[in-house]
Amino acid sequence: MAKVLILGANSAIAREVANILASKGHTLYLASRNVERLRRFAQHLETKYGAEVFTGEFDATAYASHPLFFKKVLEEMGEVDWVLLAFGYLGDHERAVSDFSEARKILEINLMGAVSVLSVIAPYMEGRGRGVIAGISSIAGDRGRADNYVYGSAKGGLTVYLSGLRQRLFRKGVKVLTVKPGFVDTPMTSGLDLPKRLVSKPEKVAQDIVKAMERGKDVLHTPLYWWFIATAIRCIPEFVFKRMKFKR
Fold first, then answer.
1. Domain 3-241 falls in which CATH fold?
2. What pLDDT score was predicted for residue 189?
3. Which residues contact 210 (CB under 8 A, 6 or more apart)?
4. How far, in Å, CA of 4 to CA of 27, rounded?
C-alpha cells in the first residue's frame, strides 16, 4: 500500500481520489487551506474505510512554508510514495486581462505554487529512486483562447514544467503524470456556460487519475475523448484559429 500526499485535498476531484485510495487501503495525508473541513472529511474516510488519514494546512502561495510543510508530512507519515497536486484557481478572466493582481493570483496558484512545492518534493523522490508525482493541469493549457488565456498560460506552464520534471526523474525511477481534464462539474466551473455533453463528473476523472498513477502513465486526458479534441485543436493553423470563437 502506498502513502499518498494530496495537495488541495478539498477540491472536488481530490476528494473523489481520496475516497478511491482510502477504499483500497492506502494511507493518506490530506492538505489544504481549510483544515477544519479536511478533518471532517478525514473522519469520514476513517469511519467508512478504516483508512489511516493525516491532515495538515497547505497554502500554495506561501512559498516559504513549503519546506517546513513537507518536513512535517514526513515526520507524521514516515515517507511519501505518491503525490497529487490538485489545487487550482480558475479566477475571473475578464478582470485578469486588465487587473494584474487577479492575473498574478491565477499564475501564482496554478503555476508558481506547484513549482515551489515540487522543488521540495522532487529531490526527496529522486533520492528514494521511486514514487509517483501527479499534477492536475488542463487542456486549457494546450492553446491560448481569448476567453481564458491567463488561466490557460498558467496551466500550459505547469504542463511544460511537469514534462521537464518527468524527463529529469525518469532515469531515477520516479514517474511524473500530467493530468489534463476537460470540463468537469465542480464548484470551480459552476456558473460557466459549458457544453453539457462534454462535462464530466469528478468521480469519473478521479477513477482515471488513480488508474493512471497505478500504471505509471505519463499523460492522461480524461475522459479519453479529450485527447482527440485537444489534438484537433492543436492542429488548427493559427491564421484560422485566431478567427474562431469557442464556447466556454
1. Rossmann fold (3.40.50)
2. 62
3. 17, 20, 21
4. 6
What gap in Å lies between CA 188 and CA 205, rounded to an integer?
15
Catalytically active residues, by annotation:
151
Measured between alpha carbons, how far is 144 from 97 in angstroms, rounded to an integer?
Answer: 13
Contact 56, 75 (CB under 8 A): no
Q: How many CA atoms does the CB half-sphere of 7 hold within 13 Å?
A: 28
Q: How far is CA 70 from CA 57, 59, 66, 90, 135, in A?
A: 11, 12, 6, 26, 17
**pLDDT at site 191:** 55
For β-strands 82-85 and 132-136, DSSP reports them as parallel
Tell me the C-alpha distance between 57 and 47, whole Å. 22
CA–CA separation, 139 vs 218, rounded Å? 15
pTM of the model: 0.93
Using CA atoms, how far residue 110 sits from 8, 186, 219, 248, in Å, is 11, 17, 18, 19
Res. 183 pLDDT band, cuts 50 70 90: confident
- List 32's β-bridge partners, or say none: 57
pLDDT in tens, 202-248: 999 999 999 999 999 999 999 888 888 888 888 899 989 888 876 54
Confidence of residue 192 (pLDDT cuts 50, 70, 90): low
User: Position of cell 498560460?
Assistant: 153
CA distance linking residue 91 with residue 206, whole number of Å: 23
pLDDT of 181 higher than 80 = yes
What is the structure's pLDDT at 36?
Answer: 96
Number of H-type helices and E-type strands within the chain: 10, 9
Q: N- to C-terminal Cα distance for the chain?
A: 40
Which amino acid does the sequence have at 48?
K
